[in-house]
Input
Amino acid sequence: MKSPTMIVFCVALCCGSAFGQEPRQKPKELEALGQYVGDWTSDVTSKPAEWTPREIKYRTSNHAEFVPNGWFLRHIEVNHIVGEPDKIAKSLFVWTFDASSKKYVGWSFQSSGNMSKVTGTWDAASKTFSHVDSNPPPSMTVKLTETFASNDSINGSLLFARNDGVKMFDMVWTRTRQKGLAPNPVQVQWAKIGTPIQPLPDEVKKLNPFIGPKDVEFIHRPSVVSPQGGSSKTVSSGEWILDGRFVLARSGLGDKESLFVTGYDTNQKAFRYVRMGPTENSKKTSVSGTRPPGRSNGRESVTRPV
Output
């Protein structure tokens, strides 16, 4: 018999493929995200600030592509500390445009176990994305900007600042597009499972039942969306990503493929997930999970640029 936790996650991971729904038209705002598609390297500098007293330089390799069916931008990153080649971190970023709020929405998942969500806008005149953290640390603002200096160069910054102006974390970077590379050279290193940071939360271990292929049957009761109800079958497959800290699962009904990223939010002390899918419900894609009062100071969450 499945545990209550398992049942909750089955519902969360499977309910996105609504029976009988037609895909809605993609918003034209997704075209701005298309500028990221391709391979990049980034030179990153973490400036001295309250949380990071000394300057640290990073070198990252990045790959971005649209999934599934062009509804979401998936951006993977492998990050090295300059001069310390054995220290490697990995990240997954997911971007889309939410037609209901008229905002761009982005989620980040890191091999450290940290997760975050930002919302923002695109200024075509300055060619700049401007985002803010949707749940910043108390008495603090978090601003993320990326400006396209050209089709092949991006200047970015991430700033955590207290309301009194004190900089808690200050990071800047320049991305340079890489051309003529083999298809997705970052993927192999990004997909390799390393050793998760210890101690690994017990909650992460509870995601193990989602690994591997699973036969899934959707039972749809009569509703406004599906007056006659019905049923449908598909296969869901799950794999560990980001050094075994998160699960990436895929499921689909015909051409309606959905992707799910699931993990345990160590700051919010809650399971959370993001669903990426082209059906009508995709406009409601969100991070799910109960948020307890309070939050850590966020120091562990700001070591990588989006």
The chain has a mean pLDDT of 80. The longest strand covers residues 84-98. Residues 30-189 form a domain with the Lipocalin fold (CATH 2.40.128.20).
